[in-house]
From TrEMBL:
GO terms for molecular function: DNA binding. It comes from Pantoea brenneri. InterPro entries: Carb_Metab_HTH_regulators, DeoR-like_C, DeoR_HTH, NagB/RpiA_transferase-like, Tscrpt_reg_HTH_DeoR_CS, WH-like_DNA-bd_sf, WH_DNA-bd_sf. Pfam families: DeoRC, HTH_DeoR. This is DNA-binding transcriptional regulator YciT. Residues 1-56 form the HTH deoR-type domain. Keywords: DNA-binding, Transcription, Transcription regulation. PROSITE patterns: HTH_DEOR_1, HTH_DEOR_2.
């Protein structure tokens, strides 16, 4: 996938739908080239083509979200990867930025990665590191394992660090998610009391999603980009949440 493809995915997901003619103007190529790009991206399930336009698809698609704000998410993943030490077992929950983190760690022969995400497991099929995939009920939309069996597997598995995804944060609600069952998985991870990080770009802050994480087991460390506004940074710090900001300029 080339930089123009990333730009097209970003535009489509930001707008929801966008005309081929406008994509051609914004990317500086012909409409014929744009149509060829859209054919490839639709084949990879990253967008949908409709007459004369491109349309964003289901936001639960990890591949689509991984290519939205890609440079920022890659910078966050690289910073998170730098925190992983030799000999550690690391839990990676799921989501687009965590998928990039898994890819960044794939060639580390001195670590073990544990995940509930089948999407991430597929990314790691040729990895040098050891990979453990936990069981449970497959949630097809997110390609992730959920449910009581997944919670039990987490309880019975040891890891040194955990990286989880979140969909929103607000000072009144704390961290929230769009999916109840995935929030339950994150709660099970946080209940173990290991060193845990929410890995998310700054666009999620100020948003409130339907399902809050358990107030008894909150994330205490966040890795995000340097576009986080000063007021939100202060609110996070007032709630004793450590914020690691990554330069993305």
């Amino acid at each position: 996938m080339n930089p123009r493809h990333h730009q097209i995915i970003q535009l489509v997901n930001t707008r929801g739908t966008i005309a081929v003619s406008e994509l051609a103007q914004l990317t500086g190529v012909s409409e014929v080239t744009v149509r060829q790009d859209l054919t490839l991206l639709e084949r990879d399930r990253l967008l949908r083509r409709i007459h004369g336009s491109a349309l964003a698809i289901d936001s639960d698609n990890v591949g689509t979200r991984m290519n939205t704000r890609y440079p920022i998410k890659q910078a966050l993943a690289d910073r998170a990867a730098s925190l992983v030490k030799a000999g550690e077992s690391v839990f990676i929950e799921g989501g687009s930025t965590n998928a990039l983190l898994a890819r960044a760690l794939a060639d580390r022969s001195d670590i073990t990665l544990i995940t509930v995400s089948h999407y991430i497991a597929q990314l790691l099929r040729d990895a040098t590191c050891e990979v453990i995939v936990l069981g449970g009920l497959l949630q097809k939309s997110s390609e992730s394992m959920v449910g009581p069996l997944t919670r039990y597997c987490i309880q019975q598995t040891h890891f040194h660090k955990a990286f989880v995804g979140v969909d929103g944060w607000h000072p009144e609600s704390g961290f929230t998610g769009r999916n109840m069952l995935r929030c339950d998985v994150v709660d099970a991870v946080l209940a173990k009391g290991v060193e845990s990080y929410a890995l998310t770009d700054s666009s999620k802050f100020g948003q409130i999603q339907p399902y809050p994480l358990s107030p008894g087991y909150q994330v205490r460390q966040v890795i995000t980009d340097d576009q986080l506004d000063a007021a939100t940074l202060l609110q996070l710090q007032e709630q004793q949440i450590e914020v690691i900001q990554v330069s993305t300029g």
